[in-house]
Amino acid sequence: MKENLMRELKRLNAFLGTGLTEEQLQQVAEHTSIGQMKNRPSVNPPANAYTERARKEGKQDFIRKVSSME
């Protein structure tokens, strides 16, 4: 999916038979991007939602930048 997200979304769209338009698929791609999800509280709760232990261990963010596995 990382290589060509739109191609994979189109394949998924065809497989599921959802009939989404190109514009709707573009919106799905944007809405599900890491940057968008990282800023969405429903996916990545604010730091005050975590326990004190998690804050001390630096694990406040659910979605973190991960180094590539090259």
UniProtKB/TrEMBL annotation:
<protein>
    <submittedName>
        <fullName>Sulfotransferase family cytosolic 1B member 1</fullName>
    </submittedName>
</protein>
<dbReference type="InterPro" id="IPR027417">
    <property type="entry name" value="P-loop_NTPase"/>
</dbReference>
<feature type="compositionally biased region" description="Basic and acidic residues">
    <location>
        <begin position="52"/>
        <end position="64"/>
    </location>
</feature>
<dbReference type="GO" id="GO:0008146">
    <property type="term" value="F:sulfotransferase activity"/>
</dbReference>
<feature type="compositionally biased region" description="Polar residues">
    <location>
        <begin position="29"/>
        <end position="42"/>
    </location>
</feature>
<dbReference type="Pfam" id="PF00685">
    <property type="entry name" value="Sulfotransfer_1"/>
</dbReference>
<feature type="region of interest" description="Disordered">
    <location>
        <begin position="29"/>
        <end position="70"/>
    </location>
</feature>
<dbReference type="InterPro" id="IPR000863">
    <property type="entry name" value="Sulfotransferase_dom"/>
</dbReference>
<keyword id="KW-0808">Transferase</keyword>
<feature type="domain" description="Sulfotransferase">
    <location>
        <begin position="1"/>
        <end position="65"/>
    </location>
</feature>
